[in-house]
Amino acid sequence: MRIVVVGGGLGGTAAAARLAKLGHEVTLLEASDRLGGALAPVSQDGFTWDAGPTYTLLPAALRDLFRKSGRPLENELGGDLEPLTVIREHRFADGTSVSLPGGSRAAQIEAFDALDPGLGEAWTKHVDTYAPVWDLLRRNYVEAPWDRKDPGRDLLSLFKTRETLHKRLRRDLRDDRLGLVAAHPTVAEGHDPRNVPAWAAVHLYLEQSFGAWRPPGGMGRIAELLTARLETRRVTVVTGTEATDLVVREGRVVAVATAAGSHDADAVVVAIDPRFLPTLEKHVERTMPAIPPVITHLGLEGPLPELPPELVIHADPLLTIRTGGTAPEGRTAWTLHGRGKLAEDMTDALARHKIDVREQIVTRVDLSPRQQVEQWRGSPMGVLWQGRGTIFDRLGPSTPVPGVYVASAHGAPGAGVPYVAQSAALVAQLIGPA
Questions:
Q1: CATH architecture entry for 2-81+215-290+379-431
Q2: Which string of DSSP letters, residue by residue, matches 232-292?
Q3: What is the top EC class of this enzyme, as a single word (predicted)?
Q4: For the segment 162-187, what is each residue's pLDDT rounded down to a tens digit?
Q5: Is the domain defined by 294-374 classed in CATH 3.40.1350?
Q6: Which run of H or of E encompasses 42?
């Protein structure tokens, strides 16, 4: 089959690599001049920062991608993914803090008990509720394509649950600090817990059970390796070419239109926000993108406080510091994320929390949410949760247009490195071998 993949981020490159390994003739169209999307790093003046995610949950998703498309990931990296001992530190308005370890129930109990005796048990009791949720999702939604018209009794019952994340956290976690930690991954992706189904916080179980993992050299290495994998698999990569719409004849997709002409296709994989393609826009008109945070990449010099890979300061605005960038010798790379009432520069807001680096900035890159969405042809945070019905409103892995599939943060099973990688696996399952 001739397959055209629209978008060169993780979902697009992963789908292209898998489908080419299955024997299909694959062309990938990317609007920008390079592949990688939110995984491609940002560089300036000798500094390099992760543009989007800095780590992944469920490392098996990336390992499966590389194993099913060629050489194993550990062979390509020259070593395995590195586990993070501490996923992130949370600092609260009352001056207390907790460092959240990954991959260990006992370590999380110890961490929360250090915050206040007894909190460890309350935390793990809450996290335990997501174990059966993950088992159901894994078998019927994450590792196998779902049928939104007939998802099965158990999956339908889960997706129809009316309980919101906000309500469950208020019920289970009486200490407000635990609620802030539990809600943070959802809030960091731009969602309001009052509009998010309670089951969607299954990431808490994944963090505790499987931990967080980072490739040596940063997430940009995954983008580099996938770009090389496409060359190995002889995928035709066309950069600087924006898809303008799908061409449908007699009810089935036959090509992808661009300003430079059409690319014939027996099947199309959409790895951008479907709203950018008029043919699909009407099918997602009830959805909205989750807005990315305001981002500032900083190149710093001089002595700095010792911080974990990720520090979350719970205030208004909500501030996150990521310290894992690379820099010239004697210098340091940080990334700031901000959400909430950003009426001032984030470095000024940070200074109010006793972390003042304003005199140490040697370079910076500022990115607004709009710039990010335009650059990546969609939000890396995927579709905004607007209630339990959102799960049925977003597309993927199949679509109502025969021959068209979705593999991106905007489709099933959702945003985040492991889910986007799995979206490509689901599409490959549906299309099958050549």
A1: 3-Layer(bba) Sandwich (3.50)
A2: HTT-EEE-S--EEEEEEETTEEEEEEETTEEEE-SEEEE-S-GGGSHHHHGGGTT--BPPP
A3: isomerase
A4: 999 999 999 999 999 999 999 999 99
A5: no
A6: strand 42-44
